[in-house]
Amino acid sequence: MSDSQRPKDPRGFYSAGATPLFASRYDQRFSYCLHVPQQHDPDGEALPLVVLQHGTGRRGPQYRDNFSEFAEEHGCIVLAPLFPAAIGDPDDLHNFKFIRYGDIRFDLVLLAIVDEVGERYNVRTQRFLLHGFSGGGQFAHRFFYLHPDRLAGVSIGAPGRITLIDEDRPWWLGLRGIEDAIGATPKLGELAAVPVQMVVGSQDTETWEINNPGDSNWMDGAQDAGRTRVERLTTLRENFEKHGIAVRFDIVDGVAHEPMRVLDPVRDFFAGLLRGGGR
Prior knowledge:
The protein has 279 residues and is of the alpha/beta class. The chain contains eight helices and eleven strands. It has helices at 10-13, 60-66, 68-74, 106-120, 135-146, 178-182, 229-242, 263-274; strands at residues 17-18, 22-23, 31-36, 49-53, 77-82, 100-101, 104-105, 128-133, 151-157, 196-201, 247-252. Strands 1, 2, 3, 4, 5, 8, 9, 10 and 11 form a nine-stranded mixed β-sheet that branches. Strand 9 (151-157), helix 6 (178-182) and strand 10 form a beta-alpha-beta unit.
C-alpha cells in the first residue's frame, strides 16, 4: 500500500472487514474479532448479528473468515469471541463449555461482548444468531437454555457432551441443581419460540475425546446419551422434540469431526432466518 493509499484514520481501516482481535472492556482476559461488511452504515439501518462460538481448538478467526462472504452477501456483522484456554487453571481446555467456572459466567461474558459490539457498530444486538461446534456446540445449547430471549436462532454442532431438558438428572447431564451450579434459571417456556438447527457429520464417530471417565469434563451418565456425537445429538434432538421444540437436523455426508466442513448447512439455516424464512 503506497502512502497515497493509506487511510486517513487507521483505526477506521482496522474496524471494517476482517478486524483484529479486540480485548473486551468487560474482562480483558477475553477478546473477539469481527467481520464488518461494506453495508455497515453508522447512520443507516442496523445490521443483524451472527455469533460463531469456537470449540476446544479456539479457531475463532477461522470461523469468522469462513463467514466473510456470508457477511457481505447478507449484510450482517459476524462476531467470533475468544475464551482462551487455561483461565484460572493452567491445564484447562473445557471450562467455558459448562457456562460457569469459579466467578466467571461465560454466558455473561458473551453478552457483554455483544453489547460492546453494539456500542461500536450499528448492529442489532437484542437478538442474534448463534452457532457453535463441538465444545462450542456444548456452550451454545446451554446458553440457549438460559437466554432464549436473546436468540434469533441457534445452531448446535456436534456437541460431545449434552445437557438434556430433564429436571431429574443432575447438572450438567440435565437441569437438576442448575440454579446452584450456575446461579441462573433456565427459561424453558421460551425455548420453542427460537428456531433450532442441529448439525453433525455422518462420519463423526470417533469416541476417544468424548468417552473419557476421570477427566475434568466427564460425568458418569454421559454415555447414556450414546457413544458417538451423532448418537448424542440424535438424543438431544429427541429430547427437544419431546418438549415441543422443533429442530432442523442436518447430517453432512462423508464428514467427520471437522467444524469448517459442516458450515454450508449452517449458512443455509442462517440465510433463511435472515430472509425471514423461519425454520
